[in-house]
Amino acid sequence: MTRREFAIKRLIPVAMLTAIALIAHDTCNKSDRTHATLELDFGAERARVRSVEAEVIVDGDVVGVLRRAAQPGTLIGGTTLKLALPAQDATVRVRVDVGTGEVPLPDRTIHVDEGATVTLSLARDLP
N or C: which end of the chain has fewer CB within 10 A? Predict the structure, then answer.
């Protein structure tokens, strides 16, 4: 067996398996995430809110979405979202319908620590 045949039959498969193992290890370590809870607070304006949609964005990627709509004649349900963020800083983009159509609210930047509950007070931003 020549050196070339030896490399092809023995070393290249070992190198490929090692590369695959390193990629798998790197992918599994992406579980290092910050777990937090995001709560949207509408305060006294809650009765006016017909629907809400919130997106949590980290580095341009949407990592969490909350969509809620109130049934006719009822208040909107829970507006809490459990998150596992790949970073501690994120942007929250919220759109709310208060009966006059969907209105985008100003984006909010949040910083979270492990296990934190972040409450966004949105009453002052509603039209």
Answer: N
